[in-house]
Amino acid sequence: xxxxxxxxxxxxxxxxxxxxxxxxxxxxxxxxxxxxxxxxxxxxxxxxxxxxxxxxxxxxxxxxxxxxxxxxxxxxxxxxxxxxxxxxxxxxxxxxxxxxxxxxxxxxxxxxxxxxxxxxxxxxxxxxxxxxxxxxxxxxxxxxxxxxxxxxxxxxxxxxxxxxxxxxxxxxxxxxxxxxxxxxxxxxxxxxxxxxxxxxxxxxxxxxxxxxxxxxxxxxxxxxxxxxxxxxxxxxxxxxxxxxxxxxxxxxxxxxxxxxxxxxxxxxxxxxxxxxxxxxxxxxxxxxxxxxxxxxxxxxxxxxxxxxxxxxxxxxxxxxxxxxxxxxxxxxxxxxxxxxxxxxxxxxxxxxxx
Length: 354
Prior knowledge:
This protein is α+β, with helices and mostly antiparallel strands. Helix content is 52%, strand content 17%.
């Protein structure tokens, strides 16, 4: 191999596992089973989204970081250095991703059992999500983004799709259209499952990729939860509510699936809003462009829209159900008043005949 064709850099693999409704991070710290680490977040994160970084002896080589998030998520990051050609990197990436997918599952399972007692409604695991970032220090004959597309586009496109064969022209163009340069000698290409960045100063963007993968995980999880809960509500709606549900005061104490959905709606709204507002990219043009590309490729807007539609359905179901109960309660109250009036008339007639 000619040394001019060698590329060096790192493969970053991000994994996120939703393991429950909530993790008591203070309780995890008090248990002393995992040692907390001081790892400040990037400057664009707000203070109220601070995960707990812990020291962990991974089953995998090149494990770099482990975090616990208070809304019930475990995230893992691996960093694999490489020095090879683009062709060889493309041929080995699939094996690396498969291998570390198994490693991450093993690591997350071990961590889950370590902190399970501190997880509310724990379960391993509800949903998981992953993303791969390929960082290169430079590319051979780098003369600008258009030159990169022309000279290396075929290999880069198949690399980002975990394919060993050359993709069609249409697929290649679809992948490469996301390519952009912020500085003259740097560039980024973002795709659905992986991204490629050519930059020596990349540390600050790692948290951004981890965060986008985390958002993707939570939106998938909430969408699945809402599907399940809505199905249960539809089934419940076919059955008549118990008579006690129509009684004032007492009715509110009866198990109410719509009321549970309303609570779920609040919980989901709070977490999704917090995630959405956890980063502040105003004045950070490079990070803003990169995050926008990530959001677009991970389809975060459509996932959020799907959740919003289902939350709107929940609100409509709640309103209809509540209106139905109120109408029946009013009818019961009216009947009660009529019965009391009749009883009073009968008592009056009885007393009149005496």
